[in-house]
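re the bet — no i am not wrong, look at it urself. input seq straight from the record:
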Amino acid sequence: MFDKLIQVLVFGCGDRRIADASCSATTLRRRRDEWIALGLAEQLRLLVLGAYDQLFGLELAHLAVDSCTTKAPCGGQVAGPSPVDRRKQGLKRSVAVEAGGIPLAALPAPANQHRRRAAGRDPGRHQPGRAATHPALVHLDAGDDYQPCRQVLAARAMVGQVATRGVQRRSRLAAAG
């Protein structure tokens, strides 16, 4: 069962593709939901990030956070009407990655919920146990430039850098030249 759930996560495929005679897709979903409810999924996530940090090192001095709106045709506990898809069910997925692009955390929210309402939730829960030697620089887009977001970052000893529309990063300019 555990191996099959890991395969679903690694390959990003549906439960039906991994299911076979030894385990049905329904059983996979049920076990996944049970393990999430027990907090085992979060413990596993933190253990995997900690192991990756020991083996390869996470670059936690620079983080990036962004979100996208996706479809949620089957609904779900978090889904809401999408403002960009004729009010069909959708999710807003906010993802935090470290400087090398390794995903640290993902938070779902209803598609119609503005980021300001989600700021009180815990987007900074991504750091695996090790203390940072200096405040992390969190790269954000203009949609995150508001006071509650800055307060959440300050409470976690992080510094937010908001992207400015129309201004290119130096690395892009150097690569183009």
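see?? The chain has one domain: 39-176. told u. also The radius of gyration is 18 Å. so pay up
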